[in-house]
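#structure-requests
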Amino acid sequence: VFGLLPGSRPSEIARHLPPMLEAARRIAAEAPGARFVVPVADGVDGARIERQVAASGLPARVAAGAFDLLASACDAAIAASGTATLELAVRDVPSVVVYRTSALTHAIARRIVAVPHVGLVNLVAGSEVLPELIQDAFTPDRAARLALQLGRPGPERSRALDALARVRSALGPPGAYDRAAAALLEVLDGDRGRRGESAP
């Protein structure tokens, strides 16, 4: 079972869902028994997502208000960079972290913040424990290949699960989001210090 999590903002869904569905089509061709779930975040136009998923013809379930249930059923996921990747990680679900934005926004972001990773799990871990596909690197073929590696038994899945266990241990019990935010701020403050900037 593979999760497809395109994000919660309309622009994220518009940029991420179509290539995710194409990736899912490739996964289904490679693994005919694969099934897909698409959790719908609160405040998101679920009907629009349902129409796109239905048009794809994929064996996918779209549901709102059932993140825990759907996430727990996943073996792996393709997820837009954001809190969803951390939510999946604490449920032992490795994900391919993806993100696309406008070329201008991406260029500005790269100038303002120079961090080695964009995924929260990778920032907390201090290394790329989950694969990241950002901007043009996010293609259906790459996302499908990496998701299959994370979802099937094998060395890539084992390495990812071991890394997620270490991340969960670092974040500890309740309050994981606060600790993840603190870890992210540490990374950003360190980046500012290297460039001689002061924190706001």
